[in-house]
UniProtKB/TrEMBL annotation:
Keyword Transferase: yes
Native source species: Aspergillus ibericus CBS 121593
Keyword Kinase on entry: yes
Occurrences of domain Aminoglycoside phosphotransferase (ranges): 62-242
Name of the protein described by the UniProt record: Kinase-like protein
One GO MF term: kinase activity
Length: 277
């Protein structure tokens, strides 16, 4: 198992329902519809019930993750119908779930309505935390493969897997060793890195953009591309990196995730010296 992001082209998961019919039908429909329907990011809406996420930087690990969550929790996620790679581009055909991003109309919701939604989200996070990694798995994707996070400014988009949290932390700080000559905040960060962190399953991007609701019900958590087995603080610190267009969300995070102020300061120090923020 790798300890550094040495292979930028690694595909971490196998295809799903990759029949000749499914493959040709998907490519044919995309060729027709992409001329008349705009992409929403990397997602093309095919019908009222189907969509496809595709691109050179899409990895089939996301499809495997959604299947894993669907099979092991009650959390609503899009059903994966097929997933394959063709000519360097990966395609995930999945259920299109009708709903609005949780932030739509948030300021007009009553406090009671907000509490209902955040309570549901908190229970879903708790359910994810009950998942246990397979024996011997370190910081990795759902199946022990590479990870994705465009917020980590290294040479390629996929990185890892890592034998341990210590290997992961060394990667994050570019192999820097603890030295008394370093700034005090760096020394404190590295000392925290050496703590005995538990590994938990993590969505990695619990943004208001990735939570779909209808009325007062959460109907889906989407965009699992950043998910994997991570140190227990990672969910909180990544959630706190809110999209500037949805700055209201920073005020809600502590209501569904356990506040970790020391860990957040640790991660902000890392970003200060080794990040892009």
């Amino acid at each position: 198992m790798m300890s550094h992001a040495q292979n930028c082209d690694i595909q971490s998961s196998s295809p799903i329902n990759d029949s000749t019919f499914n493959r040709h039908l998907t490519l044919w429909v995309i060729a027709i519809l992409r001329r008349i329907r705009p992409l929403r990011g990397t997602v093309l809406m095919l019908t009222d019930r189907l969509c496809v996420k595709y691109g050179e930087h899409i990895d089939l690990t996301e499809a495997a993750t959604m299947r894993f969550i669907a099979q092991n929790t009650s959390i609503p996620v899009p059903k994966v119908h097929c997933a394959f790679t063709h000519r360097g581009c990966s395609y995930i055909v999945m259920e299109r779930i009708q709903g609005d991003m949780i932030g739509v109309g948030w300021v007009y919701r009553s406090e009671e309505s907000k509490t209902k939604l955040l309570t549901q989200l908190k229970k879903m996070v708790q359910e994810i935390r009950e998942l246990r990694p397979p024996e011997g798995v370190g910081v990795s994707s759902v199946n022990g493969g590479s990870l994705f996070d465009c917020r980590l400014p290294r040479g390629c988009l996929r990185f890892g897997p890592f034998l341990s949290i210590q290997h992961f932390h060394r990667y994050l700080r570019e192999d820097m060793e603890l030295d008394p000559g370093l700034d005090s905040d760096l020394q404190n960060m590295m000392k925290q890195h050496d703590r005995n962190w538990p590994i938990v399953f993590t969505h990695g991007d619990l943004s208001s953009l990735n939570i779909l609701v209808r009325g007062e019900d959460i109907v889906a958590i989407i965009d699992w591309e950043t998910a994997g087995w991570y140190p227990s603080y990672w969910e909180y610190t990544t959630a706190c990196q809110v999209n500037p267009q949805n700055s209201f969300w920073i005020n809600e995070i502590d209501k569904f995730l356990t506040p970790m102020p020391d860990e957040l300061e640790m991660e902000r120090t890392r970003q200060k010296y080794f990040g892009i923020f």
